[in-house]
Specification:
Blueprint (H helix, E strand, L loop, with lengths): L24 H12 L4 H16 L11 H28 L26 H29 L12 H26 L2 H12 L14 H8 L12 H11 L1 H6 L5 E4 L2 E5 L3 H9 L11 H4 L8 H15 L1
Antiparallel strand pairs: 1-2
Helix pairs in contact: 2-8, 3-4, 4-7, 4-8, 5-8
Protein name: Sterol desaturase family protein
Subcellular location: Membrane
Organism: Ruegeria haliotis
Length: 321
């Protein structure tokens, strides 16, 4: 569609934030239907969270006392889940090449035979950081939160007692995550932290499913502090597990490098976003996502136009000299 991209959506990008003024009831209803009442990433993540709660993670009762058995069980489940989701998407899009170049943002393939990467291979490098530091720290935050819940230090609710809040909190968790991500992301783009920490993630200019959770250990820590909200806000374990899936395997879904999953040439599932793809290409823009308005409000929004590219490059030059 252009010299810069293999594919991009219609440009300039529209304002897709739910926080529009004046409120647009039609848009909000469409957003609710698109995200929660049809087959979507969030619905799939919620189904997975319920399955994890029912069959795979240890009970809160067993988490009252720290013990190797249940902690190892959580790590094993998380390792398997990240491997299955990121690995499955990588197999589908990049090994089997089920969609070829259809809806793929970049023309290039994943990096190989390049000393930029550990093991001289982008995918192996990304797997190392995602499954290593990522899987361990995700498990650490989860273990701490479950222990706090089990011992009464973090508020726990049930659906029967608080059905409205139970459902509302599920809808709000991705919004909280987007709010938290924007500000942590801005912090990580400060020159010192960027050079020493965040640059590891940004080696992935041409992203793939394994890129999403591939981070420096310090970045993993900052990124996963979003889960600490459950130490304060009343939550059910399903809320925590949904949040775990959203932050871990969910990062693979948003970094596929493709706009949508096609089935018989029909768009069946929204995955990667061009909004974030622009961030990986131009760096100092689109720190958050389209759901929250922070990039627009604070002058860091890139709408895909050549004018926005020029403005972003000027801002990057001012930041790094």
């Amino acid at each position: 569609m252009s010299k810069e991209w293999n594919y991009h959506p219609d440009l300039p990008l529209e304002n897709r934030s739910v926080f529009q003024w004046p409120p647009n009831p039609t848009f909000l209803l469409g957003w609710l239907v698109r995200n929660w009442l049809t087959l979507s990433e969030r619905v799939l993540m919620l189904v997975l969270a319920v399955a994890l709660w029912a069959f795979f993670y240890p009970s809160l009762e067993s988490a009252k006392i720290l013990a190797f058995g249940w902690v190892f069980q959580i790590w094993l489940v998380n390792f398997t889940m990240i491997f299955a989701v990121a690995g499955g998407l990588h197999w589908y899009f990049y090994i089997r090449k089920s969609q070829g170049q259809k809806l793929k943002f970049e023309r290039r393939e994943q990096g190989k035979n390049n000393a930029l990467w550990n093991f001289s291979d982008q995918v192996k490098d990304n797997m190392f950081w995602s499954l290593g530091s990522g899987g361990l720290q995700l498990t650490g935050f989860q273990v701490a939160t479950m222990w706090l819940m089990a011992n009464g230090y973090a508020p726990v609710i049930t659906f029967a007692e608080h059905p409205v809040w139970f459902m509302l909190w599920l809808i709000l968790i991705p919004m909280w995550s987007a709010f938290h991500f924007y500000w942590v992301h801005r912090l990580l783009h400060q020159p010192v932290l960027y050079k020493k920490v965040h640059s590891l993630h940004h080696r992935n200019v041409n992203i793939g499913p394994w890129s999403g959770f591939s981070m420096h250990p310090v970045e993993h820590f900052f990124y996963l502090t979003t889960l600490c909200i459950h130490w304060i806000v009343p939550s059910h374990p399903i809320h925590l597990y949904f949040h775990i899936v959203f932050q871990g395997p969910g990062a693979a879904m948003t970094h596929t490098g493709y706009q949508d999953l096609l089935v018989k040439d029909k768009r069946r599932l929204a995955l990667g976003t061009f909004y974030h793809q622009l961030h990986h290409r131009y760096y100092e823009c689109n720190y958050g996502n389209q759901e929250m308005p922070w990039d627009r409000w604070f002058g860091t929004f890139h709408d895909g136009s050549s004018e926005a590219t020029a403005e972003t490059r000027a801002r990057k030059k001012r930041m790094f000299g």
